[in-house]
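Here is an idea for our session: we take a single protein and study its fold together. To get us started, please write out a protein record for me. Start from the sequence, derive the backbone structure tokens from it, and show both lines together. Go ahead whenever you are ready, and we will take it from there:
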Amino acid sequence: MKKYSREDQMAMATWGADCAERVLPLFEEAYPGDDRPRKAIEACRTWVRTGVFRMAEIRGASLGAHAAARDAKENDAACFAARAAGQAVATAHVPQHAYGAAYYALKAIAAADPAGAAAKAAAEWEWQAGRLSVGLREEIMGRIVVLERGGGVSVKLRKGEGF
């Protein structure tokens, strides 16, 4: 597994939270009374701002967002948006979870509008890439792939060597 500096990890967490926050409305519109994904993003931003790591808080926020995703399983876009939030906060523990935040955000975008999925996922991928430092962009975005398939979109995360 690749080692990241503390600065890279915090930058990745901020980026992951940004990716998750962009799709959070897909969850909140469908489940307005459930704030678990929002709390996960807030916990992520608190960790970045303060540098204080409390495993119970990080883990609880991540598990809460993933539980919200399971509860939203009948709505793919909402489910993926909640997963993006859970992955973002988990970046405080393992930097590679930032990849998951971006990956699930792309899946949420594609699920929200299947007819326009290709264009919207491509635009979101570009937005995500543009928010990463040059030093992280090639490595991270080279592993997150959006493919057009039979009129639809497939989002893949290449794990492989160094992941």
In short: Residues 6-157 form one domain.
